[in-house]
Design goal:
This protein has 358 residues and is α+β, with helices and mostly antiparallel strands. It folds into two domains: 126 residues, Creatine Amidinohydrolase, Chain A, domain 1, CATH 3.40.350; 216 residues, Creatine Amidinohydrolase, CATH 3.90.230.10. It has nine helices and 19 strands. A six-stranded mixed beta sheet has the order 4-3-2-1-5-6. Strands 7-10-11 form a three-stranded antiparallel beta sheet. The chain has a three-stranded antiparallel beta sheet with strand order 8-9-12, with helices on one face. A hairpin with a 2-residue loop joins strand 2 and strand 3. The chain is elongated. The relative contact order is 0.12.
Length: 358
């Protein structure tokens, strides 16, 4: 159990006028206690209050003893909700997880487990958002492994290879590097396929001269990496080079702006305004980035609608792109860690490494 993290969540709850919360997201429970299991359809939750942390676990789960102040167990034929209600402070409101299914929430309401119920995941999300020193070190290593894997990917591009063949081979490359596997399913795009930002690798065969895009990430001790690079495989046309350089400059302009106190929306605007000024604004079709950590997409995006200032310890992607349907797709993505006085880019694979020998 990580008391420092739990205390931060309790402080965040108090700021929201709450003294207790029921958390059911398995990743958040792991973040707070160190205990992880995926419950499938079974009930699994952590109750937090000033009275302590109580884990509710089915007896078929791995033992959770020692991971919380109290562990309450039950079987498949038991109703766990009265057990939860017994632990709740019935004279206070209960903060609930945004992922708590109605089949659990409604019976808790019927049992009178609390005076009221409100979504309080933000208290956990805010704690998870600012990574501590241990988490930052894990994220650096995950990105280092991803840099190494990008070199492996670039070396796979040759006449006749398919997107799917490269994507399927990447898992073995990650594991050879010591990674636990993917943080998300890889995107491998040849030619015009890259104009679909979420293209799924298929049997498209590489033809020399096509541009190639890789958007990939791996896991290191439970923490995610995420990076995108786009490559030329022949002398680029004037238009290809213009699009690529516009995206590169947008990525670097946004990263240069990052420091504590700058709004997420300002970071998005730094990239978006540059792309718009180059005449490609309508073709940058997504937010600039997303926060990342134990999950590849964590709450709190980098977009024009997010006006909170960035805080030290936060890690998010900066991934501008231009997508010209049927023609070109370019995206360049790095992970950015907010430091006490600026930023640290966690990816070190060059933005200039755009020429592949095929």
């Amino acid at each position: 159990m990580n008391k420092e993290r739990i205390d931060r969540v309790l402080g965040n709850l108090e700021a929201r006028g709450l003294s207790q919360a029921l958390i059911c997201d398995p990743v958040s429970i792991k973040y707070l206690t160190g205990y992880y299991t995926f419950p499938h359809e079974r009930f699994f939750a952590l109750h937090l209050s000033s009275d302590g942390a109580t884990l509710f676990c089915n007896r078929l789960f791995p033992s959770a003893e020692g991971f919380a102040d109290r562990v309450v167990t039950f079987t498949d034929t038991d109703d766990p909700l009265p057990l939860v209600a017994d632990v709740c402070q019935k004279g206070s409101a209960l903060g609930v997880d945004k992922n708590l299914p109605a089949r659990w929430l409604l019976p808790l309401m019927d049992l009178g487990a609390a005076t009221g119920f409100e979504v309080a995941s933000g208290a956990v999300d805010a704690a998870r958002s600012a990574k501590d020193a241990e988490e930052q070190a894990l994220m650096r290593e995950a990105s280092h492994l991803n840099d190494e894997a990008m070199g492996w990917l670039a070396a796979q591009v040759r006449p006749g290879v398919t997107e799917l063949a490269i994507a399927e081979g990447l898992l073995g490359a990650y594991r050879a590097l010591g990674s636990e596997g993917y943080s998300f399913e890889p995107i491998v795009s040849f030619g015009a396929n890259a104009a679909d930002p979420h293209h799924e690798p298929d049997d498209t065969v590489f033809v020399p001269g096509q541009m190639v895009l890789f958007d990939v990430g791996c896991l290191w001790q439970g923490y995610c990496s995420d990076m995108t690079r786009t490559f030329f495989t022949a002398e680029p046309t004037e238009r290809q080079l213009e699009v690529y350089e516009t995206v590169r400059r947008a990525n670097e302009a946004a990263a240069a702006l990052v420091k504590p106190g700058v709004e997420f929306a300002e970071i998005d605007a730094a990239a978006r305004d540059l792309i718009t000024g180059a005449g490609y604004g309508p073709y940058f079709t997504h937010r600039l980035g997303h926060q990342i950590g134990m999950e590849v997409h964590e709450p709190g995006d980098v977009s024009g609608s997010h006006h909170e200032p960035v805080r030290p310890g936060q890690i998010f992607s900066i991934e501008p792109g231009i997508y010209l349907e049927g023609e070109i797709g370019v995206r360049i993505e790095d992970l950015c860690l907010v430091t006490e006085d600026g930023r640290e880019i966690l990816n070190h694979y060059s933005h200039e490494a755009t020429g592949l020998t095929v």
